[in-house]
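Example record

One chain of 338 residues, shown exactly as stored in the release files.
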Amino acid sequence: MAGMSAVPVGHAIDLAYFFPRHQSPHDALIAETRRHLGGCVAAIETGLRVLVDHIPEVSSALESWPDLLCWRMICDQPTLLGPPLLAHMRMRAGVSLMLRYGGAVDAAAQECEDAALPETDPALADGLAALALAEGRWMSLGGENQPMRPDLPAEHFAELMWAVVACLAAVARRNASEGGDRLLAGFERAGWAMLADHDESMSPLMEADRLVRQLGEQSAETTLLDTALSGRRFLLFAGLAANRLRMEITQVVDILVTGPLPPLAMLCRALGGSDADYRHLLLALRPGRPELTDVALVAAAAEYQALSEQDAHAGVAALRTPASLRAKLGHLLGAMAA
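Predicted structure tokens for this chain:
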């Protein structure tokens, strides 16, 4: 694939899996990740075409390409997507799979949830409704070209948006006989206008985080974590865990959905989870983590028994340090071990 030699080896391998040349992806997580990527690209491209429509030289250059084209171009050149953006989309896809295929809530769990979450409070009722609506957007079925609200964190939205701008600008410049620099300036203005209007607070992660803050002191109740997990409210569970452990909800969700098992075990033990709680958590996460086979579950449960609460709290404290520090320390330790 063109450009692969210019990216890190690990990212190149990921791109080869997520963007196979001659076949459609059969893995559910890969297909869901592509759906999120393609849907966000389609929505961004549609918005940009509206913004440049009043710029005559730009709109005329795109007249020959009335249909959406950026997702196809990105599939041909996936190196336009950086590792953090791809990792975020993979996390979104994992959450979608868990929400969609996590199973129905039984009557007992629903009754417990109704008692634990005071939906009679109008603010909390609105928060629960907003969270359910945002989760529904991620769970909705559709093809890769079906627009999806690009409720990404600002840094990831900017990267994806500029990639879409670059695709449109490349096509427009190829069709324009002259004035390529003026075209680029027009696309740039449209890009900055879209960035100014972007609202990252509408994502399910931010809705869950906002709901936990609305719960106030009640979010510290021990039974609420069990209630959220039993009620298949994965993002509410992540928000409650993040609040209790003084972590960011995005980091907790990443550990739950795509992270290795040792940090997941530390998170569960630091929350006071028993051996049975950990097994329950792994089973709940299984729809978004196909690697959790029966054999893997048995091995993970055995390792969890040996994890002390003291070691778990020390590990969680290390996870609170800046990601850049952890990455550079890991690189140095790996180099020293070699």
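Notes: The two ends are 31 Å apart (CA to CA).
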